[in-house]
Specification:
- This protein has 207 residues and is α/β, with parallel strands linked by helices.
- The chain has one domain: 3-Layer(aba) Sandwich (Rossmann fold), CATH 3.40.50.
- The chain is built from 6 helices and 9 strands.
- The chain is globular, with a radius of gyration of 15 Å.
- 46% of the residues are buried.
């Protein structure tokens, strides 16, 4: 199933993203009872009402962000840690991923999974992801794996000039939006409809 997923994605995203995904054992990032489904191209439940995104969505978001080696990345919505692990492969040993999760049990789960997978350049912290992590800003890239009613201002402000943010936006209809910070203002690109769990917090949906 892993090879089938990679073949399906080939040509739609960069080979570099596919190579990074191929190095991350996705089965380590899902609950033991459903590891046989780890490479199916669909979201899977990871507990606490949350999901691990489908492989194609992880690939698309990483591809759109154009993550380079040595970058500092903020990951909002750690979940099981899989998306952070793929981005850690993309930034390489000289880069770092700071990942924030609001649910304690998932933050613990993600840390265990990342350790099991041998990922050393991801820091998982617990908190309100809609506020970002200003203590480690500015970031080259920001990935948000939950939909917001609008793009949170703190996340935009924590981008470097030339930095990029990808985030689902909307409630009934969600759209994947890429934000690039320019010297003056921001530029937006729209990348089609998506379905994500809501981003809860001060700059997201009300809890």
């Amino acid at each position: 199933m892993k090879d089938e997923t990679m073949r399906m994605l080939r040509g739609s995203v960069s080979d570099r993203v596919l190579a990074a995904m191929g190095r991350v054992p996705r089965e380590l990032f899902v609950p033991r009872g459903i590891r046989g489904s780890a490479y199916e191209d669909r979201p899977l439940p990871i507990g606490e009402g949350q999901t691990i995104s489908a492989p194609h969505m992880v690939a698309i978001m990483c591809d759109v962000l154009d993550i380079g080696e040595g970058m500092r990345v903020l990951d909002v919505g750690t979940g099981s840690g899989y998306h952070a692990a793929v981005m850690a492969e993309l930034v390489g040993p000289e880069g770092h991923v700071y990942s924030i999760e609001r649910i304690t049990q998932l933050a613990v789960f993600a840390k265990e999974n990342l350790t099991a997978a041998g990922v050393k350049n991801v820091t998982v912290l617990e908190g309100d992801g809609s506020r970002g992590l200003p203590e480690y800003a500015p970031y080259d890239r920001i990935n948000v794996a939950a939909t917001a009613p609008k793009i949170p201002e703190p996340l935009k402000e924590q981008l470097k000039v030339g930095g990029k943010l990808v985030i689902p936006v909307g409630s009934c209809y969600q759209e994947l939006v890429l934000v690039e910070r320019m010297k003056e203002g921001y530029e937006l690109e729209h990348h089609g409809g998506v379905v994500f769990v809501p981003l809860l917090g001060d700059y997201g949906f009300e809890m």
